[in-house]
What we know:
disordered N terminus; alpha+beta
Amino acid sequence: xxxxxxxxFAVLGDRTAHATVMRALSLQTLAQRSDCIVxxxxxxxxxxxxxxPGSQRIVTDVEFQVEDVLGKAPPAASVxxxxxLGGVVGRSGEYVAGQAELELGAPCVVFLRRLAxxxxxxxxxxxxxxxxxxxxxxxxxxxxTPSPRLPDLLxxxxxxxxxxxxxxxASAKDALRRVLEP
Length: 182
């Protein structure tokens, strides 16, 4: 009986199940809702407890080094404070489905917005939909890829993720210029 259970687990364990579903954002919507669209990399990250109305959550603050601007106005600084939901504080951890995880030192394109002006950090527009790791293909050419934490998207065919995945940085800039032109 244990062998049968182990076999069933092996067969079923290979399937990926996604419990989180989000409505897809179009490239135009993602770009328009963002304050800046930049290429860069996370330098440092630290997690802490943050009070929100009615709850206390773990958030991770990331120092993000801007290397290039792909769309919108350039940010005022070359290192930006970016906040994402989830993280680890002491022996407590919090995972937020659909939230991007910015890997330290890894290049990525991010769509950023501020919820308030002033000293508040930037947030990823559309959570994982606004995060595109940049990976090189076999020829060494860097391309945008979907965030590894991207949930299933309703309306994927018209999504920003579909529109940008596989594009080079130059092609992504062109696509953004076209959707942001008046």
